[in-house]
Amino acid sequence: MARTVFCQYFQKEADGLDFQLYPGELGQRIFENISKEAWAEWQKKQTMLINEKRLNMMDPDARAYLEREMEGFLFEGKDVDIEGYTPPSK
């Protein structure tokens, strides 16, 4: 049976992640408060950010930057700023 969480990103009850996908305290917070759907949204943004900014994931600074963006996106309602990308209008 799928576990549900109150998703802080969508502000509604939704299917939670099956297991903790990110390490540490932030990973635990994501597991407890972020839905599968919100995580999938972040994954798309993360891929665009990595490609746009040519981030090297072996670089601790790049990982720290990505973590800040992830936290802002998932918990603070901040959209990811990707140069040259215009989100489709709703």
Distance between the termini: 33 Å
What's the tally of helices? 3
Give me the CATH superfamily.
Fe(II) trafficking protein YggX
The count of strands amounts to 2
Q: Uncertain segments of ≥5 residues (pLDDT<50)?
A: none
Question: Any descriptors?
Answer:
90 residues, YggX-like, two-stranded antiparallel sheet, mainly alpha, globular, 2 strands
What does the secondary structure layout of this molecule look like, with pairings?
Layout: E1 4-7, E2 12-15, H1 24-33, H2 36-52, H3 60-75
Antiparallel strand pairs: 1-2
Helix pairs in contact: 2-3
Provide an overview of this structure:
The chain is mainly α and 90 residues long. α2 (36-52) packs across α3. β1 (4-7) and β2 form a beta hairpin. The relative contact order is 0.15. The longest helix is centred in the middle third of the chain and has 17 residues, at 36-52. It is built from 3 helices and 2 strands, in the order ββααα. 48% of the residues lie in helices and 9% in strands. The chain has one domain: Orthogonal Bundle (YggX-like).
Quick rundown:
Helix 2 crosses helix 3 (60-75).
